[in-house]
Amino acid sequence: MSRRVVQLVVAGAALAIVGAALPQTAATAAVGTNCSIKNQLAASNCQAVVMATVSKVANLNPMKARAVTDYQVAYPMQGLLWRFDANLIPRMDLLIKQDVSKDGLTIYQQLKPNLKYSDGTPLLAQDVVTAWQKQVEAKQSSAFFAKVSNVVATSPTTVTWTLKTPMPDFNWLMANQAMYLNPTESLKSATYWNAPVSAGPMMIKSWTPGSDTMVQVANPNYWAKPKVQQITYQAIPDAATRKLALQAGQVDYVFDLAYQGVTDLDKNTIKWFAHALPGTYQLTTNMAKTTSPLYNVKNRQAISAAIDRAKVAKVGFFGTVLPSCAQTFIKGNPYHQCVLPNEGKQDLVLAKKLLAEAGNPSGFSFETIVWARPAWPEAAQLIAQDLAKVGITMNITVKQDTVAIADLNSGNFEMQFSGNNAPTPYLQLANWFGTGGAWQNWSKVNDPGLIAAIDRLGSASNPITAKAALKTANIAAYNSSVHIPIADRAVISGTRLPAGLLVATTPGEWLYVATTPLLSAQRGPTGFNTGAKS
Amino acid sequence: MTATPIGSGVESAVRAQEGEDGPRPQPTWEKVLRRTGRAIIVAFWVMVVAFMLIRLSPGDPVSAALGADAAPDTVAAARKALGLDVDPLTQFWNYLTGLFRGDLGASLISGVPVTEMLRTNMPVTLWLIFTSVTMTLVISLPLAMFIAMARIPGLPYLFRTLTAIGLALPSFLVALILLYQFGLIWQVAPIFGYDPTFPANLQYLWLPSLVNCVVLVPVLSRVLYSSILDTLEEEFVETGVVRGVRWNRFYWLYVLRPSLAPTVVLLSYMMGVMVGSTVILEIIFALPGIGRELVTAVTMRDYPVVQGIILVFGILVVFLSLIGDIVASLLDPRVRLT
Amino acid sequence: MSVNAMASESSDVLVEIRDLVIGIQRTRKDRLLIVESANFDIRRAEILGLVGESGSGKTMVCRSLIGTLKRRSASIFAGTIKFDGMDLAKLEERQWRSVRGSRIGYVPQSALTGANPVMTVGKQLGEAIRRNRKRKEKDVRRRVMELLELVHIRRPEVVYDQYPHQLSGGMRQRVMIAAAITQDPDIVVADEPTTGLDVTVQAEIMKLLKEIRSELKMSVILVSHDLALIDEVCDRLVVMHAGTCVEVGSVSAVARTPLHPYTIALNRSRIDISTPGAPLITIKGNPPAVGEWPAGCRFSDRCDFVQQDCTVGRNPVLVEVRPNHWSACLHAERLGGTSE
Asked: Is the ipTM reported for this complex over the cut 0.85?
């Protein structure tokens, strides 16, 4: 008798637990805000937003950060002298004034008065010097910093930069993660980057290294007021789950959606967009393999001519990217001009002509390693189909990033399909062809004429000479054709937020948080070297 | 050795005992200790293999961590800082001595100690396995009993067909379908996230566990179903009927318990497999489990994390199988603990 | 009819089985008959042997006595099993509960699989005792010990805590016999209780059954395909062939003066171990498969004495050829005493 009672009680308890759990899940399911792209009034309801990132935050230290998420979360919570606005234009942030000497070799900067970090520590000019020193010590962004001869804090609020050559990209550099400002004393602590302070619009509210979630709140010590008061970054590794979370309203902003299926998002509540990354997909040749048919420039140019870039962009990348017509990226590049023959369109006649000139009219075959990233192998497959039309056989091997990088390091490749990002066209070319550039190192390209052309671009003293120098450098790059450009790079984002609150800026990897007053309302300095048309 | 082959264990054990007269030795602490010792040796070898494999695979943590454009002396400094500048044998010795101090090293990427990662992420994976197994049992036991005993024409056929379909479905697809239906359309489950406290974690775990059930229930209920059919053929069931045993006692002692041993052994094996396979669910449901950490660590060539997690996985799998064997031998004394 | 005469025979009849038909309802119209005509009595405190080759239906008859036909998808289509005013053939599952165990005990076929492998000996026996009467734990244990001693188990206190697979085959079967008699039933049904046991152990089990009968005054139905084994212990024999009782009578009568050619053949096919080198005689042909029975007498295909009228018409029924000795052979009179 009593045993039956016990059984009934146990069964009842089990049912009660299940029953209690279900409505609870329903109640807590909606964690996103009720923002809507259609409801402009909702901006005030969007004080706390949730953003889905592709991975968890691995490291906030800019010397170690390599993942997209690391860039994204760090950018709003780090102090910068200049900061990119939503359109990738650098705007003065913690500076009140920047003057350039006539010869372009000395730059005077004045900080806003009474700057403080989020913990109340004063932000001093010495912190700018420290940021530069750290970069030089770690040999980071060396192509840039090689042109800086010295940085001096002339007073607690003034800094003087002495340059070896004029730097048209100087403000780009200032708005880059290389110049994150942090307290000089605190940086000496080994654990500083577990809880860095902020001189940017946002600051960390809660985060433990290794956790999936980071919460940032508005930094009260920042000079402007951010339009969102809280951002929760939630790692959602799977692209399909990120899409579902956005559709269910559990997140407000999603970075990196899959190409497939974005079109069936509800247009009334969700806006999706492909934003270009300042980079290019390219085929990189290993010039150390002197016996390869790819060693012959005519063969490489034949490949370049045979590729239907428009089709690769439209089919391979779902029309989210622009087909290349020069070595450097197009979108967000103020100096862009087409230089490829026939504006980069497919030209099978030219390809056959080049093959004949190279002495192998019936084509050749070669191996290509493709990085295993979404849509890359498919794009490479389309290229292989194009090449087959002129008798060139491209054999494709898909490899994980790290494995492909190891192959690059060991020189164990004939050609790789990959991508190269850089904040500026100059840096992109320097990285590809300049001495010490990573891709120069891997491809073993050595073209003194091309390097000279890139150097001229790097020290162009005004927009007109910069545009001309980029064209010359891009033509030289085509003549080398060690890296064959395919298309611009892009990432797809989706958002429920009204426009103007929060956006992954054109570089894609930096998250821009709108403030009052807007960064773009700041008056820029007189004279050239904003690096962009202002 | 670690897992009794499904089905054969019972009969062979019976045959081995046939004709013996003395009292049969019960599962003793001695045997458990011996199995534990064996388990530790197996886990050690798993660790050694993991140590070698991750180093033999192409790619290295420094280029993964420092990215594309690091200068050669930066790379050298990083190698030294990470202890990768010495030969692998010395690395192994350093790792081993660290292991005995309870130090599994720290992530080369984030600097978080591996023990800390295990402490925060391992419980998520264990909870996911635990809830999956509980739900699987709650579904499978009555299901298999009912199908085997109801004698409804056509039902076994339907059962076999449905379980075959369940088995054939890839779990990532099931996960996405269920997430779409329960998370987006019905909104009864959160789409992502986790709460480390019990019972709040259950609201995040029930849906991924249900996905596991789609694969586990067919396997388990089919094995249990055929064991029950075998048991029902046995004469002691007849004896039980004639003895007039009450229905609840009858179903438990005469039908289910004599049929459970192969299922329990299979379940412990499946739990071991799940330790590795839950990673796909951890990714899709954005659960901060240890499997996801392992995948990230492998792609980043984060040696200490990979080694640490694989070591713990090895121990876990071996011990799950040990626990499975102990439970099976407690449920069915014909199964001997070896 | 002579079958009716059988009924009025004696007042110490415990169970009366008449015209029992058992089979499987395969579809609504298709019935597969396994037992077509079972007719015999079980008397008080007798050991009744039920012999026949496998497939003769003897196990099905046993199952009908303990009400477990359903588990084999079989059911009783016709006939009666009268027992203490009840008709077991028409008993509901609920009513069976008061009969099984307490009125009719069961010793399973195989010593190997007959005992529940996951329960100790003490638990299995205790379970049967506890069932009807509320008893204290201590009393139950004492009673179990008594029973184990009754079936001559050495060291019962050790065996009490052992699992069946830890016991030898003989001991296991003794335990099963103890389990069958825990509730003092009127009848114990023992279905081939010595399968898989050594010859010496078989003899011991037979001896034990005989003891129990005489000590506890129970009736025992002993099913076997081995005539030699059981005619030592049985009082009367029922011989079954192809779903039919072909001969019923006392052991002495059936063994010495069989009245059915099948019984004669069975007698002949015993291995004569006392005469080394004697030829092994088997019954010719195989027993007819269930559902493929010939017309007329089911044994006609294999019979040495087959006559023309044997292969036509219906299956012959039991006739009391001599007092208390029934045979289903049409020519039983002419067979009388042909066995050696």
From this structure: no
Picking from B67, B121, B285, the nearest residue to A241 by CB comes out as B285
The answer to the question of residue A529 being in a domain is: no
Contacts made by residues C292-299, CB under 8 angstroms, sequence distance 24+: C293/C36, C293/C242, C293/C243, C297/C328, C297/C329, C297/C330, C298/C241, C298/C242, C298/C243, C298/C244, C299/C241, C299/C242, C299/C246, C299/C260, C299/C261, C299/C262
Q: Is residue A453, in this structure, part of any structural domain at all?
A: yes
Check whether C339 has a pLDDT greater than 50. Answer: no
- State residue B66's pLDDT score: 63
Of B59, B107, B189, the CB nearest to A405: B59
State how far residue B246 is from chain C, nearest Cα, in angstroms: 8
Are the Cβ atoms of C165 and B13 closer than 8 angstroms? Answer: yes
- Tokens representing A7 are 């059984």
Q: Where are the domains of chain C?
A: 3-103+183-335, 111-182
Higher pLDDT, A534 or B138: B138
Look at residue A54 and tell me whether its pLDDT is greater than 70: yes
CB B121 within 8 A of CB B288: yes
pLDDT at A368 over 80: yes
Sole residue written with tokens 């640490």: B308
Mean pLDDT over the full length of chain A? 84
Confidence bin at C8 (pLDDT 50/70/90): very low
Chains that touch A (3 or more CB pairs under 8 A): B
Domains of chain B, by residue range, sit at 27-58+104-331
End-to-end CA distance of chain A: 87
Q: How many CA atoms lie within 13 A of B154 on its CB side?
A: 0
A397-428 pLDDT per residue, tens: 998 777 787 788 788 899 999 988 877 888 88
**CA-based nearest distance C278→chain B, Å:** 33
Determine the pLDDT at residue C201. 86
* CATH number (domain holding residue A334): 3.10.105.10
Question: Does residue A302 fall inside a structural domain?
Answer: yes
Touching subunits of B (3+ CB pairs, under 8 Å) are A, C
> How many residues does this entry show for chain C?
340
Number of structural domains (chain A) is 1
The per-residue pLDDT for range A504-518, each reduced to its tens digit, is 665 556 788 888 888
Interchain pair B235, C114: CB under 8 A: yes
How many contacts does A have with B, using Cβ atoms within 8 A? 134
Dist CA A454 CA A168 (whole Å): 13
Q: For residue C66, what is the nearest residue in chain B, using CA coordinates?
A: B242
Please indicate whether, in this complex, the C-beta atoms of A402 and B74 are within 8 angstroms of each other.
no
DSSP assignment of C105-172 equals: EEE-SBTTTSS-TTS-HHHHHHHHHHHHS---HHHHHHHHHHHHHHTT-SSHHHHTT--GGGS-HHHH
Band of pLDDT at residue A532, cut at 50, 70 and 90: very low
Tens of pLDDT along B217-227? Answer: 999 999 999 99
Distances in whole angstroms, Cα of residue B189 to Cα of each of A92, A236, A250, C238:
45, 16, 11, 69
What's the CATH number for C3-103+183-335? 3.40.50.300
A244 with B109: Cβ contact below 8 A: no
CATH of domain B27-58+104-331: 1.10.3720.10
Q: Please answer yes or no on whether A25 and B206 come within 8 Å at the CB atom.
A: yes
Is pLDDT at C205 greater than 80 in this prediction?
A: yes
- pLDDT tens digits for A369-381? 998 887 899 999 9
- The reply to whether residue A401 touches residue B299, judged by beta carbons under 8 angstroms, is yes
Residue B59 has pLDDT above 80, yes or no: no
Q: B23 and C162: CB-CB below 8 Å?
A: yes
Chain C residue closest to B152 (CA)? C73
- Residue A374 to residue A54: CA distance in whole angstroms: 13
In a domain, A25, yes or no: no
Range of the structural domain that residue A440 is part of: 280-490
